[in-house]
Each structure stands twice: as C-alpha cells, then as structure tokens.
Amino acid sequence: MKEKIIIFDTTLRDGEQSLQSSLKTKDKVKIAIALDNMNIDIIEAGFPISSPGDFKSVQEICKNIKNSTICSLARCLEKDIKIAAKAMSKLENFRIHLFLGTSKLHIESKLKKNFKEIQNMAINSIKIAKKYTNDIEFSCEDAGRTNINELCQMVEILIKHGVKTINIPDTVGYTLPNEFKKIISTLYKRVSNIDKAIISVHCHNDLGMAVGNSISAIQAGARQIEGTITGIGERAGNAALEEIIMAIKTRKKLLNFYTNTKHKKIYNTSKIISKICKISIPINKPIIGINSFSHSSGIHQDGIIKNRKNYEIISPKDIGLKKIKFNLTSRSGRAAVKYRMKEMGYSKKNYDLNKLYKKFLKLADKKGQIFDYDLESLAFIKKNYIKKKYFKLKKLKIYYKIPGKTKILLKILCGNKIKKINITTKTGQINGIYTALNKITKLNIILKKFKIKYKQKNKNIFCQVNIIAQYKNKNFYETKLDIDIINTSIQAIINIFNNIWISKKLKKINKI
Q: Which residues contact 403 (CB under 8 A, 6 or more apart)?
C-alpha cells in the first residue's frame, strides 16, 4: 500500500523572509488561493505576532481558503499563541505551530537556558495551545545539530503531552542526506510513543541538500514535508516543494508514496509566486525553469521527436505546460528544423530543407538562437522577393512639456508611404514611441519584456536593449546595441514590427 506524504507549504511565512519587503495582504491572499487550488495540505499563513500586517493577512487568508488547513507560527510564549489563535479564530479547525531551539548552541547562546528549562517551556506552551486547538505542531529548531539523545527525549515528551506533529528541521542546511536519514531512523527506533505522532521535516538549502534530505527523511519514516514553491526562503532557501512532489510522482515505484497535490497546477502556481514576490525563476531550475523541457543538442532533439521519453523523465503536461519548443541553435540538426517547420504549418513541398539548413547554420553561428520568423525568412524571403525592411524610421523628434509630459513626433516609412503621428505621453519616451508605432502599423504588439543593459567598450558606453514582444500569441525577440538609448530602443522595436510583417506576408503567400 502506498503511503501519503503530507505537503506543508511555508511560502507565506519562511518564504517571505527572503524578500526585500513584506508582501501586501492582497498578494498573500492571491498566493494562498493558488496554493489552495493546488490542493496543498497545510498552508502556513504567517507569524501573526510579528506585525499587525501579518495578523491581518492571516485573518484574510482564513476567509478565502476552502480546502487546505491553515497554520500560524508562534514562539513558546503565551502572547504569541493567543495572537496566533485569534488570527485564525473564524475557522473551525486550524493548526498552531510552536518552535523552540533544542541544539546546545541555540539553548546556551541564543536562549541562555539549560535543556530542562527548554523542556518546561515546551510543555507549558503546549498546554496553552491546547486551549485553542488539538492540532499542534512543534518544531525542534536546529534539530540537525541537536544531540541525538536529547532530541529523542524531547520528541517523546512532546508526544506525551499531546503534540500530533513533530517537526525535525535542518534549520541551517547543515546535514547530508545519509546523516539526516539516520536522525529520523534513530527517532523511530528509540522514541517509544512515536507511532502517536506524524514526523515532519523542514530542510534548508545552505549546502544544496534540502530536497535530498527531505526525500531521505520520508524513506526513514517521516510523513510530512515542509518547504516552499520555487524553494524561496531564509538565506539559500527551503526545500522546493515542486521538486519533491514530482520526485515522489516520477519515482513512485521506488518510493511507494503519493501526495494529494494537483501537480498540473505546479507551473501556474510557481509563476504567480514568482511574479508577486518579484523573484525570477532561474532558467535551469528543476521542474519549472524554462530550460527544464528545452533541448538544444541535435541528437537530443532527434530523440525527442521520435519519443519524448528518450530525454524527458517528466512530461511537461504533468506540471501544466501545454507545449514546449526546441531551442534552435547551431547544435540543432536537420530533424529539428524540419519538425519546427511542420509545426508552423509548412510541408516539405514549400521549401528546400538542405538549402534552408545551410542558411540556418550560418545565421545560428552569428545570432545564437533562431526563432520561427527567422526560419520563415531563411526559407522564403528570396523566393518571394519580400523586402527585409517594410518599416523604416524617417524622423523622430521629442519635445518636453511641463509638468512631466513628453510630446513625440514620429514619421515612419511603411512600404512606399510615409505615415506621421504626434503623441503626448506621461509614461516616458519609450512607452510613447511604442504606443505611436502600434497606432501607425496597426499591428498592436504587447511588450512582454523590455530590458536595458549597459556595456563599456574602450571609452564608450553602449546601451543594449533586449525585447520580447507578443503578437497574436506569438513571441518575437530582438536585441540591439548602440550608444543612444532612445535610438537603440526604437530601432529594436521597429525590427520587431518588420519581423511580424514578414511573418504575416509569408503566411499569406504560402496560404497557411
């Protein structure tokens, strides 16, 4: 029989500690709803005693959550426990999460007490918490560096006094998987009443072991894993829950566990958290990074075309990704180019693959990554005599007005006609130019990314503009380098409009 692993999410508590500023209540509620929709078992909504804002956020989260159990953190102090309970008082069932340092280092240097005093503090806090709920979790802070005899003693006392979930944290990410597994195994061997509680683990990632330690812990008997979506958290972060959930799903025969989480909501939830927390997801991040299901090697791409399982152990659909494209680079083979052209709707009768591939390699060596509109240009631009640049800048004049207004005069050559527009904007020159170009071209692109970098060459400082624009659910990319930021930006945007125009023209000519 497979056993369930309880998923405890602390994105809103431990995860928030890694952010430069606290999240607003409405943003915390959005994240909580996303976690609830993902069917996370327990959501640690916050640390209510820490601030009035956190107290209010926990209250609001309680009003909006339908499925998950809500949990609040509290020190082993009566005022903490009362405030935590009050924040969740509108709920019929909730969890109070108590914590107290148990390692010699924490007891002596941080708490200035002895082990017996720590035990008494824990017992007293449990008695107070039980006035409000029977669902109590207790964390033995810094358990990874706690003397194993004292840890066993502490766990036994906690369970004896009615704690239903005992958390064994690797608070500073110090242990290795074999060490952490041994700690959990020892607890199961030596704590006589351990069958009356669920053992949980909360691992930090200081040595990059958080996920490995969590998996080793459930193999040793732990049945709850704590972490965050995307792995955000104090210092190097927490165990990334999406990695753990998919490891359990992917290696289900070996691990023999399951979770109740809706794994197809992983990608969307991670994007929501990334956007609200303003923390970008690294491209090589397991499971949710944009490179997780991308393939550049020609050999790999050919293998994927024949059977995705050749080089993918997880289906993109399993985390909520509908379609994954290849990264077409100079490492890509003919099979990948042919496959992408077919996906765009072109049959092998429309173009010469050998000629296209030769041109593709030359451009890929210069440009790096090749996009759909590049392939279309390489395949058809000479054949159909399409001019490379349909839109050209003829005149740009910027007038400054007070207060904070900018007037822009723009003249653009559109084929054989010059179109002129005057626009006044309060949102900056580049945004004004982008708005004006949308009106002139009538293509109405959406800027998805506009990033500026500065590079120094010899004594000159150059501005590099990187743009991603969306037109009818298709992304167009452009990079431009120049000394003047405004000129660089407008030329890059115009290049995107040219690429869109070419793409539209080619589709029409080839009737697809």
A: none
Q: Which residues, in sequence order, are CB contacts of 149 under 8 Å at separation 6+?
A: none
pTM for the full predicted model: 0.78
CA atoms within 13 A on the CB side of 485: 11
H-helix segments, 251-398 = 252-255, 266-277, 298-306, 334-343, 353-367, 372-380
Residues 399 and 108: their CA atoms lie apart, in Å, by: 67
Tokens at 149, concatenated: 């005899």
Q: Are 361 and 332 in contact (CB under 8 A)?
A: no
Beta-strand relationship, 391-401 and 405-414: antiparallel
Nearest to 100 by CA among 80, 130, 71: 80
Per-residue pLDDT of the chain (512 residues; tens, 9 = 90+): 799 999 999 999 999 998 988 899 999 999 999 999 999 999 999 999 999 999 999 999 999 999 999 999 999 999 999 999 999 999 999 999 999 999 999 999 999 999 999 999 999 999 999 999 999 999 999 999 999 999 999 999 999 999 999 999 999 999 999 999 999 999 999 999 999 999 999 999 999 999 999 999 999 999 999 999 999 999 999 999 999 999 999 999 999 999 999 999 999 999 999 999 999 898 899 999 887 877 667 777 777 778 778 878 888 899 998 766 677 888 888 888 888 888 777 777 778 888 889 988 988 888 788 877 778 778 776 554 455 678 888 888 877 666 667 777 888 888 888 888 887 777 677 777 888 888 888 888 888 888 888 777 777 777 888 888 888 877 787 877 778 888 888 888 888 888 888 877 766 655 54
Q: Which helix (H) or strand (E) holds 421?
A: strand 417-425
The amino acid at 265:
K
CA-closest candidate to residue 314, choices 242, 258, 366 = 242
* CA–CA dist 201, 166 (Å, integer): 8
Collapsed DSSP state (helix, strand, coil) of residue 79: helix
Is 123 in contact with 157 (CB distance < 8 Å)?
A: yes
At residue 492, what are phi and psi to the nearest 5 degrees?
Answer: -65, -45
Peptide bond connecting 169 to the previous residue in cis, omega within 30 degrees of 0: no
Q: 């993902």: which residue's tokens?
A: 38
Burial environment of residue 170 by CB neighbours within 10 A (0 to 12, 13 to 18, 19 or more): buried
Tokens 């990695």 belong to residue? 243
State how far the Cα of 212 lies from the Cα of 220, in Å rounded to an integer: 13
Q: To which H or E segment does residue 227 belong?
A: strand 224-227
Contacts by 424-431, CB closer than 8 A, 24 or more apart: 429/398, 429/486, 430/486, 430/489, 430/490
Q: Alpha-carbon dihedral of residues 352, 358, 364, 365, nearest 10 degrees?
A: -170
- Neighbouring C-beta atoms of residue 165, cutoff 10 Å: 23
Instruction: Using the structure block, give the residue that is written with the tokens 């197809």.
Output: 264
